[in-house]
Amino acid sequence: MNNASVKNGLMAAAIIFMMVSAPVSLLPQSVRDMDRQAQEYFDNKEFSKAVVIWLNILDIEPDNAEVQKKVEMLYELKQKKDIEFERSKMDYKKAKMELYKNKDEKISDNDAERNLERARERADLAFDRFKTAYRIDPNDPEMQIMREEMERLEKYLKSEEQKFLRSKKDRERARELTAIARKAMEESRYQDALDSWEQILKFMPGNIDALEGKRQAVLALENIIKFENIKRFIQSGTDNYNKGDLKLARQDFMNVLQLDPQDVTARDYIERIDDRLAESRKLEQRERQAELFYSSGIRNLRENRFDEAEDDFNNILSLYNNKNFRDTKERLASIPALRKDYDRRQAEARDREFTDQLQNGMIALAEGRYQEAISFFEKALKLDPLNKEIPRYLQRAKDAQKLIDEEVVDENSPYFDVVNSLMVSGKKLYDSGKYDESRKRWSQILELFPSNLVANEYDMKCRIKLNPETRDSIVSKFIAEAEGFMKVRDYRNAYRKYALVKSIYPEYPQIDLLISRTQRSQSFGGGTTTLTAAENAEIERRYRLGMSYYQRGGEENVRKALVELRWVVQNDPGNIKAIIAVNKIEAQIRGGSSVAGTSGRKLSPEQEARVRRYYNSGINYYQNNEYSKAIAEWRKVLIIDPRNEKARSNIIKTTELLGRGR
Fold it and tell me: What does the pLDDT read at residue 103?
């Protein structure tokens, strides 16, 4: 191989290495560059560009907390701007409405002055709110348009205020001349109109109406054909506006502005038309959104998701400024009763299930089906985690099952072959009289399984064969241990001791009776075998009394019921029905507050990813003023994560924003 081939091979290997390793080092740098670029856009108040980049970063690094904070901050800024901007537009419209009232030629000076004062109050509010919104996002095209409108409003207000600084005589003279000039314009006497406007401007140089009138009179004198076309379009536009044909009216007034861009009448009409068209679009949007909320609310009611239904119906009322939509208010008012009824039915179902699980567990425990008992008690404890008695029964079942597991080695146990081999060997050695060797085999088994019945039995037999004189002492010890177990109602261990006695001393007096007694009593109480007839009668009487109190209902009766039933359990620990009644009542008193629910469940990684995606998608839609789509995305978040307060808050605030401006 020549040097050139070697060199080419090394270069190829280097290129491959760079291609493989480059993404590892370049990706974090790329994210940093993207963040820096987004920050520059943000600093320049180019928010739409900034949010797109930051959302792209979150697609690459979903857990980037710093970028997520920036996205949230940007959303909050825009929301503040939107709210202030909407409020400023509302105040602007109200100020204009007050000024329109003064167009009436018959209005008195006092009324006109009051209207002007109200207009100024509203305008100042509009200016302040607009400034707040404008400082946040001066690049918004809609803000630029509104800025021009605000400036025109301020100019007109100052002109009107200047009028009231003049004497009453001047105001009356201006009003008379204005009427004369307008009549002259209507009669096409444009020179006479111009003379009247100029007379007004001599003593009121800033009068807006006179300035506009003069401009139109000059236009008519200089280009009568153009002016007549303007008049024709204004008349057509006014007629169409009055008929409600807003689109045709707007076109007419746009034709006016093409001929005369400064025409005030056309500008005013276009502004009013745009307001009405925007309100109509908003109304349609509100209705669509209300329909979505309403359908969702009905569905949530059907599925017993009352909190979500409440959110849906309250959002509808926010859209309509607390006015009813269909039967929203009635639906909302019905939720407390529906929730109460549902909670009652759920509590009853939970009580039934709890009672069934507890009862099945007690019966299984009594019948020696310990594995089943464990399963039943665990289910009951899951339904009522604060219950203090069930863990005791559960532990008894586990202890009993453990004894069984030790008494008989299961075929599936890894020790089965070893233990079986030792048993076969131990029995052969015992049968051949090699008791010492046999006992060693049994001792090995007992090291692994201390409770193994066969090993314990043969171990005792070997000890007695080796030392016959110890039989009576061993038997006495077992009998004493069995009686001790009987006193504490541990019948399972008592039975084991008696069984060992019988295996090594079958002739022991009444051993079969003792064994029978433990077998009948192998429950968690079994007290019925040791109680007198009178005691049993008293237990039954107090049980019935307790249940009678419980069935009457009321806090005091329930308290009395518990007193009686607890007495029964204390004196007859094996009384299954009393135990179940006590636990059922105590669970009801706790009101199910401890029942494990699903509202606090942890989201899976896949669900968390979907929540982030939908949430950020909602912010993206919001930044582009697509409010309904933003709400739809945040509603997806709540379907996956009903406890997501940020998404819920965003929906409420955006819904309120949609409901403004009416």
Answer: 81
Question: What is the distance between the alpha carbons of residues 277 and 139, in angstroms, rounded to a whole number?
Answer: 24
The pLDDT assigned to 4 comes to: 46
The answer to whether the predicted template modeling score (pTM) of the entire model surpasses 0.70 is no
Task: Give per-residue pLDDT as tens, 573-589.
Answer: 777 788 888 887 877 77
What stretch of H or E contains 72? helix 65-101
The predicted pLDDT at position 15 comes to: 40
User: Helices 141-165 and 168-186 sit at what angle, rounded to 10 degrees?
Assistant: 120
- CA–CA separation, 654 vs 112, rounded Å? 38
User: Cβ contacts of residue 154 below 8 Å, gap of 6+?
Assistant: 123, 127
Q: What is the mean pLDDT of the chain?
A: 84
CA distances from 55 to 416, 437, 615, 617 (A): 62, 80, 11, 8
Helix (H) or strand (E) holding 615: helix 605-623
Rounded distance between C-alpha atoms, residue 81 and residue 99, angstroms: 27
**Single-letter code of the amino acid located at 410:** D
Least confident of 1-5, 36-40, 96-100: 1-5
- Answer yes or no: are the C-beta atoms of 320 and 290 closer than 8 Å: yes
pLDDT at position 502 is: 83
Is the Cβ–Cβ distance between 207 and 159 less than 8 Å?
yes
Are 595 and 380 in contact by the 8 Å Cβ rule? The answer is no
Neighbours of 153 (CB within 10 A): 19
Residues in the chain: 662
> Which amino acid makes up residue 471?
R
Q: What is the pLDDT of residues 440-467, one digit of tens each?
A: 998 998 888 887 878 888 888 898 889 9
Using DSSP's 3-state secondary structure scheme, residue 2 falls into coil
Closest CA to 545 of 571, 588, 499, 578: 578
Angle, alpha carbons 50-51-56 (nearest 5°):
105
CB-side neighbour CA atoms (13 Å) of 571: 18
The three-state secondary structure class of 114 is helix
Q: Which amino acid is at 345?
A: R
The DSSP symbol for 46 reads -
Separation of alpha carbons 287 and 323, rounded Å: 13
H helix intervals, 303-327: 306-319
Maximum Cα interatomic distance, the chain, rounded to a whole number of Å: 149
602 DSSP assignment: P
Give the span between the Cα atoms of 75 and 618, in whole angstroms: 10
* CA 468 – CA 455 distance, rounded (Å): 19
Distance CA 486, CA 518 (A): 8
Residue 164 is classified by DSSP as: H
- Please give the structure tokens belonging to residue 332: 């909302």
